[in-house]
Amino acid sequence: MRLKIAVLIGVGVLALAGCGRPQPSTHRIAFITNNAADFWTIARKGTEKADAELADVSVEFRLGDGTAAAQKRIVDDLLAKGVEGLAISPVDPANQTAMLDAAAKQALVFTHDSDAPNSKRECYVGTDNVAAGRQAGELIKEALPQGGKIALFVGKLDARNAQERLQGIKAALTGSPIEIIDVRTDDTDQVRAKANVSEMLVSHPEVAALVGLWSYNGPAILNAVRDGGRIGQVKIIAFDEDDETLSGVKSGAIVGTVVQQPYEFGYQSITLLAKALNGDRSGIPASRQLFVPTRVIRQNDVDDFRTKLSQLRGR
Amino acid sequence: MKKEFATFALLLVLCLIVTALNPRFLSAANLQNTARLIGAFGIFSLGLGLVIITGGIDLSVGSAFALLGVLLSIMLTEWGLPWPLAVAGIIALGAVLGAFHGLLITRLGLQPFIVTLCGLLLYRGLARFIARDETKGFGDAAGFQTLQQLATGSVFHVPTPFVALVLSSAVMWVVLHRSVYGRHLFATGRNEVAARYSGVNVHRVTVGAYVILGLLVGLSAIVFAFYTNSISPSSHGSFFELYGIAAAVLGGCTLRGGEGSVIGILLGTTLLQVLQNLVNLLGIPSSLDFAVMGGVILVGVIGDQVLQRRRARIVRA
Questions:
Q1: Which of A49, A59, B7, B250 has the smallest set of CB atoms within 10 Å of its CB?
Q2: Is residue B254 within 8 angstroms of chain A, CB to CB?
Q3: A268 CA to chain B: closest CA distance, Å?
Q4: Are the C-beta atoms of residues A153 and A183 closer than 8 Å to each other?
Q5: Do A203 and B227 touch (CB under 8 A)?
Q6: A61-80: per-residue pLDDT in tens?
Q7: Is pLDDT larger for residue B247 or for residue B141?
Q8: Using alpha carbons only, what angle is made at residue A131 by residues A129 and A136, rounded to the nearest 5 degrees?
Q9: Among A51-60, B43-52, B89-98, which is the least confidently predicted range?
């Protein structure tokens, strides 16, 4: 079916080019992600909701491929097409400042999901990852009242959100009898992600809890702990709302997961941008950071959360 | 056999060092973990080695894992196909992709590097499109628990991927070292023109190598899909072809073609997995992971080169 669609799109693409251009009076706003992940499917729903609500706005949603180069090309294309406002999740904020500043000369620029505080972006909409890390830290303390050794797993440690989550966790654990023995990275290779956990269970059999900082680390830990026959003995704390992570929380194998609200990233970015383009900047906080709070999902919250999630994903 | 010796020696020395530093290296749990990964990576490395022996290359393996993994998940969870049919379908599809590469390379005379580079881009894109950029998984495996147990389980404590690797290796050993096809394969890789003049159907031999790689990629794809239990189409299997190429080269295949052995490829795969294992077991920072791998491979290749030169000098003298 999808293959048929692919062919149809291929044939129809030229015919469609030039159609569907918005009226000159509407504001063209773009929402750009850092990569392609389920997370963004939910954010997309938020942008679509805002698009539907606001009569004078047309929203374009673009997926990045995880590289700064692709984002630069997307932004250049969008600006050339006359986009007035854009919300972007920069892949490499420190080195994309110049690109964002250049874009800010031609359009109103927001960052979402990942911030570039040194750029001329107007506002950041997204998670306070230090606070999210602190919530995870509290979950760890709850799971290990007697203390113990824990290990952390993440894709890349040089990513800002990884650093901030780690910082939050460390802050929450200060003064507790819990010791972080290692942080292992996997370069987003999921096979390595799981192998890292299996090997941690071998090299440190005394480890009491495992924490996954990125969405796929939760399932990777869960599967490795299950294969090793250590479910229940080793506590698991995760981030984000991967299906398997939620199943793990539901079954009790995972203590809890800290989830972001990507729907709000999409919705709030677009509505704030639209307002600002109409001259109303009252929605932008003085700090230029609009934090969308994270939530902790425990065993009792899973069913409600899942229902809401499938509505958002349109399944 | 001589060429594999350097790799074998390196592997042995590494294992001894790691065991001395952390005896848990030889614990049952660790051996099982490592054997499972050696199985998963070894199966497709055998095929990649075969293609390299013909003087070809395949860069599309990692993307094919993503595409086949996504399709496997859709077949099992959305279409509800009986699992033996889904498995057969995925392996057949792998073979079709291989045949497609092989025909483009032989019939149209395109370079393997270009053909499979396009495959790398094409299959990754298709995987993402078909999955709508969402992670595909297997849920609670309702209806195909047997397959899940088969792919993730063990036979007498030996992980099934490793068993599958041993069986595939036995078959491939006969194909490569004891069959007419194997002889033709080496002949084609060493000197395609000479092989053709000697009456070898080099086109059929080359296409055959890509089809065999395709079959093995299909099998590996199933193992990887159930190992991670979820397939995120944008990153699943990314760069895995490089592990296969590195394993083949470490095991004595040359990228010029015409040389290589099943034993060598197995040793190469094992060495790569042991290297990654030791980084974790010895608590070497993850950031050094690739550096350790690169460094040790380089030592192996240099050692091999030095040994060969010395041997050549002795022969001359």
A1: A49
A2: no
A3: 23
A4: yes
A5: no
A6: 999 887 888 899 999 999 98
A7: B247
A8: 90
A9: A51-60
Nearest to A104 by CA among A94, A114, A96: A96
The rounded mean pLDDT for chain A is 88
Residues 6+ apart with CB under 8 A from B259: B3, B53, B186, B189, B190, B252, B253
Confirm or reject contact between B154 and chain A (CB < 8 A): no
* Chain B positions in Cβ-Cβ contact with residue A243 (cut-off 8 Å): 135, 137, 139, 230
Residue A232, min C-alpha distance to chain B (Å): 18
- DSSP run (H or E) holding A304: helix A302-313
Q: Which of A58-72, B51-65, B196-210 has the lowest mean pLDDT?
A: A58-72
Structural tokens at position A3: 């293959």
pLDDT of the residue at A13:
47
**Residue pair B95/B38 in contact by the 8 Å Cβ criterion:** no
Q: Closest Cα partner for A48 from A271, A267, A261, A262? A: A267
d(CA B93, CA B99): 10
Angle of helix B262-281 versus helix B160-177 axis, rounded to 10: 150
3-state SS assignment for residue A88: strand
Per-residue tokens: A39: 């997370």
Q: How many CB atoms lie within 10 A of CB A315?
A: 8
Closest-approach residue (CA) in chain A for B237: A189
Residue B1 has pLDDT above 70, yes or no: no
pLDDT category at A310 given cuts 50, 70, 90 is confident
Tokens of A87: 């919300």
The residues on A that touch B, with CB distances below 8 Å, are 2-3, 6, 35-38, 40-41, 63, 65-66, 157, 182-186, 188-196, 198-203, 216, 219-220, 223, 227-228, 242-244, 247
The CB density around residue B208, as the number of other CB atoms within 10 Å, is 21
The proportion of chain A whose per-residue pLDDT surpasses 90, expressed as a percent, equals: 67
For residue A1, what pLDDT is reported? 54
Report the pLDDT value the prediction gives residue A206, as an integer from 0 to 100: 95
Q: Which residues of A touch B235 (CB under 8 A)?
A: 188-190
